[in-house]
Design brief:
heterodimer, A: mainly alpha, two-stranded antiparallel ribbon, B: alpha+beta, Immunoglobulin-like, 2 domains, six-stranded antiparallel beta sheet, 4 helices
């Protein structure tokens, strides 16, 4: 009887372990190999950095790889999605918006060449927003002092600011917003930052003070130019 | 008297008696049959019948539950429920950022052709884009949403805001 209970307990534990086990980076790299990618080295380097920085989890990366495996598109296009994300991670950019758009496009049945173009365009926007914020001293792992207020900037908070600002600008331009109305563009960005529960209100106010409407409008204009091509 | 003579005498006597009382014994068999149920022993329980009965009850309950869920009015006044009126759809799924755009089948339709799905309890506060997939292929935005986003040119997403709990504070 005791032996039976021991075996049952071990079996149950094994079952629970199998069910709850989270994918590891190795599972993701194995999926890349099975997909038949040509540049595994760049993918591994980019995603390893992303896992270390907690910008993407192995679980999400594996799901994306598995979704791409199901696609009938040529391997170069399927790998292209992963390469754009890997390069963004290597360039120290947040990839939440890119991963999100990749999944959205796959679900909607958008052709992979269109998804790749969309990801490249949005990656450029993320880079421009990050460069603008860096020029204002808004970078991760520092403390900003503005008068009596101190703001601790973690990587997660700065990444969220970059992502939300980029999304707001993309939505504004793609929604047909007026490019000459710089104040409306700035308001769209500020509103999006304000509505995000992760971004401290003090940081949103600080960005309002240090980033001008013209600067946000310039990025919006760049987006419009890229979309025309 | 010999044995065969005695037997013949007995037969004759019984035959005469039967002829004389034919009207009285005509219902004898019926009366005996009428008395039988009271003295019949209880039948043994038949487990196969019991199981079949239980299965039938469970099936009726399940069908009732399914019909109740599908025909009762969709709880669209609940802010945690997303609804879409689409009476002619065979299936409707929700795809959203909070499911990594993985389609989740919706309940319905109810009598008014409304499909609905309750938001997951563990959804984090924030802004989420979403849309509905009708019959597995057609992308449909939520006309009840207050904000919309253009993505992939012709496909419009609806936007949903999940507010943080009132007791939590901004970081």
């Amino acid at each position: 009887m005791k032996r039976f209970i021991t075996i049952a307990a071990l079996s149950f534990g094994l079952l629970v372990g199998v069910v709850t086990a989270q994918p590891t980076p190795e599972d993701v790299y194995k999926c890349f190999v099975e997909l038949g990618v040509s540049d595994l080295q760049t993918l591994q380097a980019g995603f390893a950095k992303g896992f270390a920085d907690k910008r993407i989890t192995p679980d999400t990366a594996l799901k994306l790889c598995q979704r791409l495996k199901q696609s009938p598109a040529p391997i170069s296009l399927r790998e292209g999605v992963l390469q754009i994300i890997a390069r963004a991670l290597l360039e120290d950019l947040p990839v939440e918006m890119l991963v999100d758009k990749a999944f959205e496009g796959l679900t909607k049945g958008v052709p992979l060449d269109v998804i790749n173009d969309e990801l490249l365009e949005r990656k450029a926007t993320l880079g421009e927003v990050k460069a603008l914020l860096v020029s204002k001293g808004i970078v991760a792992n520092i403390t900003i002092r503005t008068g009596p207020i101190t703001i601790q900037l973690t990587l997660a908070i700065v990444d969220t600011v970059i992502t939300e600002a980029a999304r707001a600008l993309e939505d504004y331009v793609r929604g047909g917003g007026k490019l000459e109305d710089a104040n409306a563009i700035k308001s769209a960005v500020q509103l999006r930052l304000m509505l995000n529960p992760i971004i401290p209100k003090t940081l949103t106010n600080y960005i309002d003070q240090v980033v001008s409407a013209i600067e946000w409008a310039q990025i919006a204009q760049n987006i419009a130019n890229r979309l025309k091509k | 008297m010999h044995e065969h003579e005695l037997e013949s005498l007995l037969k004759e006597t019984l035959t005469r008696y039967a002829d004389a009382h034919r009207d009285r014994i005509a219902d004898l068999e019926y009366e005996i049959v009428e008395e039988l149920p009271e003295s019949r022993p209880n039948p043994r329980p038949r487990w196969s019948f019991a199981l079949a009965g239980a299965a039938a009850v469970a099936a009726v309950f399940a069908i009732g539950l399914w019909v109740g869920l599908n025909l009762s009015a969709a709880p669209c006044s609940d802010p945690d429920v997303l609804c879409l009126v689409y009476p002619n759809a065979k299936s409707v799924s929700l795809a959203s950022q909070f499911t990594l755009w993985e389609p989740v089948p919706m309940n319905g339709p109810d009598r008014s052709g409304v499909w609905w799905l309750r938001l997951p309890k563990d959804i984090k506060p924030g802004r989420y884009e979403y849309g509905f997939i009708v019959d597995g292929t057609r992308w449909v935005y939520d006309p009840r949403a207050t904000e919309f986003v253009h993505t992939f040119d012709d496909k419009i997403n609806s936007v949903l805001y999940v507010a943080p709990p009132e007791e939590s504070e901004q970081p």
